[in-house]
Write a structure and sequence with these properties.
Length: 409
Amino acid sequence: MHAWPASEVPALPGKGRDLRIHDTATGGRVTLDPGPVARIYVCGITPYDATHMGHAATYNAFDLVQRVWLDTKRQVHYVQNVTDVDDPLLERAIRDGKDWVELAEGETALFREDMTALRLLPPKHYIGAVESIPGIVPLVERLRDAGAAYELEGDIYFSVESDPHFGEVSHYDAAAMKALSAERGGDPERPGKKNPLDPMLWMAAREGEPSWDGASLGRGRPGWHIECVAIALDHLGMGFDVQGGGSDLIFPHHEMGASHAQALTGEYPFAKVYVHAGMVALDGEKMSKSKGNLVFVSKLRRDGVDPAAIRLTLLAHHYRADWEWTDQVLEDAVERLGRWRAAVSRPDGPSADALVEQVREALADDLDAPAALAAVDRWAERQDAEGGTDEAAPGLVSRTVDALLGVAL
């Protein structure tokens, strides 16, 4: 599977700062200190509907992580998956009378178009669940043979008790875990499981559903969590720098993925830091495909909204905050984009050297994009009120906003 084209990232004078970011597992901020190559895995879409603002906000957050790292003169090894076979996808295909493969391919293509329009940097490896099955099967077999997994009526389950570190990503109690498991694709009430929280690694073939050869596992398809583990271990290895996604992935997805990998390798931790983006709401409720309360990137683009304004709407909110999409927040972003473009269109202006460092410092401080926007606002206000004589300033502002915020002026 291929990703989308990368926009060029301008080089800035000097060097960026190391990123201090909130780690879900420890509950505090840590300073990331990757080697020359920073490694990040971000969980991708299940492609049964178009990219909505919740998706865009999450991937925008991890695009900022990449940009901060690039500004420190590091390379970035970014991996993202596509869950191109799963129950919600199959259910949507049946509902709409579509072939599930065509549905997945079409929505993945639209996702790529949206990411390109928003100028989000692509992953180095963009990997689908289906193409990963040959690598998933041996991992499930290893877990089973090591006693970390067991069979139940042909399905293979992971035993959460096989990982002594289970629970150290979310720190939720058993009652919360059970409730979230039931809400987010688990089956805690299934009779015969050793622990209600045990997640499925391999689902035996069901009539009328796609299945693949699972060698000693029999025909079937992989569970959700082991998919990401297989891809991450293959392309990044254990102990990579950041595991990212929306806050709704803390449990069960990231908790279970960590335990799968740790039980497989005997190493700890799966990822050094767990970073999670907040949720975007519409009309008082979190945007979700199941509820249908969605604002789509592609629909806004078709309506003539500049993708740079969409991106500024996202950047106006701290990545960890839950916030609500309204017509007003988009209007504010459109107005801000116009002011910035007018400011950098002039032949000279006030010095922008301090602005570069202010934006760097804001983003290094737990990706404080609103503070970065405020710094650019202040420069634009000075340009409007006083002007300046620095001929290099407007170009430097444009390059800074492009390189660090991904917005083309």
